[in-house]
Amino acid sequence: MSDDAVQLSIIIPVLNEADSLDQSLARLFNLRWVLDDCEVILCDGGSQDDSLEIARRYPCRIVCSARGRATQMNQGAAVARGRHLLFLHADSILPHNLDRLFPGDARWGHFRLRLDNAALVYRMIEFAINLRSRVTRVAGGDQGLFFARDFFHGLGAFPAIPLMEDIAICKKARRKARPEIIEAAMHSSSRRWQNNGVVKTILLMWSLRLAYWLGVDPARLHRLYYPQRG
Q1: Yes or no: is domain 3-192 CATH 3.90.550.10?
Q2: pLDDT (tens digit, 9 = 90+) per residue, 6-52?
Q3: What does the domain layout of the chain look like in residue ranges?
Q4: Strands (DSSP E) along the chain, which ranges?
Q5: Among 19, 51, 190, 201, who pairs with 47 as Cys (CB 3.0-4.6 Å)?
Q6: CA–CA distance, 137 with 54 (Å, rounded to integer)
Q7: What gap in Å lies between CA 107 and CA 146, rounded to an integer?
């Protein structure tokens, strides 16, 4: 595929995602538009499991980089050829009719979030997240952030911080343009709420956002969010 033919570069940061990656890539490459008009760039941050072996089974470009979501996504964006860049979590699912939904003239935007657990409490979480995103024009990475490639590089890419890089770039982007919201749902994993408890996770996430807004160092916030990584 020539550079001019690539409409969308789908950039997936990966670190030890073998449990879900095979299913995610299979689902992604089942979308005709992805095969015909998109490129998929998998950015590995040093996985120690079978993530790379799984990725090599699919027609995606593999980029290796230093660990860190922002670093990995920026590395993928640096080699991307698409007119737009879509940053996708490894366990997120795109709408099946994305080719008819994607706003080709948008400068940036995101999807409406749908969590993959059927319990009522997750509908409430989704509602709160989607409402907050509309009001603040700030979305999280699990909502599928996308940017026109030139617009993204004009923002200076994701800031090199270990946490809240999605919040930081949205705050830059909203000063230049309103986000386009794709109403078809981006299905994302509810595992962090399930693993850590709904109430505890909500309180932690809101506390981290408040601390970031108050100027707390993102490296300190990262240690709070990922205590097992030190």
Answers
A1: yes
A2: 899 999 999 999 998 999 999 999 998 898 889 999 999 999 999 99
A3: 3-192
A4: 8-14, 38-44, 61-64, 84-87, 108-115, 146-148, 180-188
A5: 51
A6: 35
A7: 8
